[in-house]
Amino acid sequence: MARDLGxxxxxxxxxxxxxxxxxxxxxxxxxxxxxTCGSGSFIRGLIESRSPPREIQGFEIQDxxxxxxxxxxxSSKLTKVSVQKANIFNLDLKRDIKWxxxxxxxxxxxxxxITNSELGVLRSANxxxxxNLKKLAGLDALTGSSNFDIAEFIWLKLIEExxxxxxxxxxxxxxxxxxxxxxxxxxxxLPISSAWVRRIDARKHFDxxxxxCLFYVEVSAGESLCEIPVFENLRSSEPETVWGFSEGRLxxxxxxxxxxxxxxxxxxxxxxxxxxxxxxxxxxxKTDGExxxxxxxxxxxxxxxxxxxxxxxxxxxxxDNGRSRLSVIxxxxxxxxxxxxxxxxxxxxxxxxxxxxxxxxxxxxxIYRGRPRFSIFGIGDxxxxxxxxxxxxxxxxxxxxx
Length: 402
What we know:
The protein has 402 residues and is α/β, with parallel strands linked by helices.
């Protein structure tokens, strides 16, 4: 798998199930677009189906996949298939794609399963144009709140640029992407008239430990989208639950929410994010006998007053005893505090951080720009409170730990 492209090629068995779920494609949609066609699994499935479309256009960025998809395209006898090398981020879908015939359009495929921050860490050039996609303000636009799946960007690009063609869009996605797209569409009043979600077994098909689905929407102006049925699998005839909107927020069981909406309201507590440093190799430590070691395997000897226990999301979920596996260096007690005082107050720490200054210099987030050396974020009085309540959103089963 090409990790910096979020590359999960779709197995033929899953393609068949998806096409069966959508029905006779050619009868419903004469034109089919696959914006990230990979090695051509969906193209092959479409042209070999009992109801192939009249025209298929596919785009792919990787040469090896493009060559395979092109060979499949050349084998088509009934369907005109065009496969071109292009980066979806650089296409204007409204201007650059022309169809021979008019008729309903289906967009189908399996876009990348990777986030923009992961691509930044990998120093990948396969990124969409820099923008504040979700129109966030202040620090939210600079920290983790602005992180999004590349598939989200592709979804929104498809909806906005193809809106005048009223397409149906059916893409394999993380379920979290489906939720985020629906919420964003509601917030921005994007023209989605109907939608449904069908869960798939990502472990079986992609060897990926992620909650995934076939996400389907119909783009057209009209009444606002209210309810989204969610099916257990691609063959289910009845939904297992229904997502819906309540006061502009997406909830994943609208019937249950209606029964309990009377307790909904604003939380009287202020929730804070965890520490953000983006320098785990240097800042996160593990105890090795009587000494600390960083992730580079180096022994770390710094003033103890600046080392604190660290609980990560995995620890919150799995640990029964509340003990931390790791420690973290905290060089500031508040955001923006001048770290030059460390040279006098904690000379060993200052020397250690200075010796690893190249790690801090590689941090990509603009939040560190113009800040004191070795700055961190998510820090304040609450960070040093003797007791805390911590929440991890990475696991779907609620588990409470002391």
